[in-house]
Amino acid sequence: MTSITAITIEAADAPAAERFYNTAFGLGSRLRVRPSQEPTTGFRGFTLSLTVSQPANVNALIDAALAAGATTLKPATKSMWGYGGTVQAPDGTIWKIATSAKKDTAPASKTFDDMVLLLGVADVAASKRFYTEQGFTVGKSFGRMYVEFESGSSPVKLALYRHKALAKDAGVAPEGAGSHRIAIGGAGPFTDPDGFAWEAASLAAAS
């Protein structure tokens, strides 16, 4: 089964971005940072999410991110589906921290259960076909709105969402231009219909 081995964030100040991620989230080998001066404006077309077991962990991770220099896009709040909030890292990457649980069952912790890469795509059905052709297996599918692929032992899950809907969920305007400033390691090399670049796992590991 095709999977993601790691995400590489491209940042103008790579050392500063590395310090932020190590301090805020402690993602280990799931996420790497490399320098890039590629121009980008507005929404980059993707978000990264950390799903956790309880609201206290949402607060712990968001507080750590804000203390390390992130800014709030959506404060953590309760909703019908659970509890969560969205922040933007200093390098511009948008992170959503969320849980489906509505009550705490343990002391607060910065631990998380899953890391999810959510790509905002122009045509969910077309992108779904593309990724199944690359060897991905569909886990959940909700028509032309949302698709989640099975992750197996992958450290990062992959999902697709309509571009405008993802921007709205993140709390930003959908307009954006320039580089996504992200490279996905594992199944590549190829570029998907929305311009997201995938690299071979060996190249991603060397970045």
From TrEMBL:
This is Glyoxalase-like domain-containing protein. It comes from Amycolatopsis xylanica.
